[in-house]
Fold this protein.
Amino acid sequence: MILYKYVPQDRIDILKNKLIRFTPLNELNDPFEFRYKITAPNDVALEYILKNKKDALNKAIVERFPYLTINMLEAISHEEYKNILKKEYKEEHFQSFVPWGNIVSGIKDNISSIIGILSLSEVYDDILMWSHYAEYHKGMVIGFDINQSFQLEEQLTLLQIKYSDHLPVIRITNMEDVSKTPDLVQQAFYALKTKSQHWEYEQEWRMIAPLSILSPDKDISGLSPYNPKAIKSIIFGANVDNKFKKDVIDTISKDDTLHNITFLQAKLDSQNYKLEFAEL
């Protein structure tokens, strides 16, 4: 399968250095990235609240139900307290005492510290992506044969992005230590591959890699070598200048590891809002 990377001119270093970056999650450009709704089973949330937020809960209950007092609540057993809540207090009310924001941030920060993401696309002809990622059509698109791109395939995960109007849901079963939720990794990957319908035009695929296996760099995290034979095509933007084009072609022609690459040149269609491509 061939997938494409839109890049500006200064990313010619991908060809010269044989390195490409897996970007940490918290550096991606969508503020909704890895944003999800988090829930927990009713009993799990209740136990957490009773252990960590009982004083605040007592106060709220007394304000809501004047026939109860703090002394009454303190005097009853744990099970009796839970039964009162289940009977008198709707789930969405007492779950509001859970610091979901802190839990969400904790999961995201943890994921951000251990994985990098290489974003690719099924298409090389999208006008918006040429503008957003390839320097207003002055850059290039690199076509990778994803089946032979990297030497550490067994440690990589390839995800096809799913587009939705609704946030994904992560359901945790251990609120004291979220990492002990048995299927947390699978749920996290589902959230990683879910984006808003607004991004559907990108037809994105993501390659996920542990940052620990990527090349260390004191200035840039997430760099990884790739197999030069994986590069199958270079597509130049409609506004590319001849100097950059020559630099790319010369870089490839002088490198014995880069060969059998097809060069295409984009140009604006004369009749429609689309790009045409001609082989060089």
The chain has a mean pLDDT of 88. The two ends are 23 Å apart (CA to CA). The chain has ten helices and 15 strands. The longest helix spans residues 100-114.
